[in-house]
Specification:
The protein is α+β, with helices and mostly antiparallel strands. 37% of the residues lie in helices and 19% in strands. It is globular, with a radius of gyration of 14 Å.
Length: 139
């Protein structure tokens, strides 16, 4: 059995992700923060627009972290944390800050998880769209 190496998320990849998400947000006239994490959850890139609300920096990072840890877009997890949902107690069960609001998207290369992007500052659906556009540009 052979193992095929998958290239990790590079700083160039992270810069492309940030630029693409910011461009999509600018086109929608939304100010955002964008966070890119590598597969280990380490910060590769972060950018907050000058006029973005300050909390967007924290939310973008938590969305990226949540998408990475659960290998699922945060938009797909919103229902799971509602009362009676599969992950209802998960947001309070861990020391690490998870955030179940749309805007976090895992990043895969050749079927492997290599990182995640989080966008905060717009409406959740907008943030999800900006993050998704960035991931699609990387492919």
């Amino acid at each position: 059995m052979s193992t095929i190496a998958v290239a990790p998320l590079s700083i160039e990849d992270a810069e492309l992700l940030v630029a693409t998400a910011r461009r999509a947000a600018e086109d929608a006239r939304v100010t955002v923060s964008v966070t890119v994490l590598d597969a280990g959850g380490h910060l590769l890139a972060f950018r907050r627009d000058d006029r973005a609300v300050l909390i967007s920096g924290e939310t973008s990072t938590r969305k990226a972290y949540t998408a990475l840890q659960l290998n699922t877009p945060t938009a797909d997890l919103v229902e799971a944390v509602q009362p009676g949902g599969l992950f209802h107690t998960l947001p309070t069960a861990l020391d690490r800050p998870l955030l179940f609001i749309a805007g976090g998207v895992p990043i895969h290369r050749d079927g492997r998880l290599i990182g995640a992007i989080g966008v905060g500052g717009g409406a959740p659906e907008q943030d999800h769209g900006f993050a998704t556009a960035a991931v699609q540009a990387l492919a």
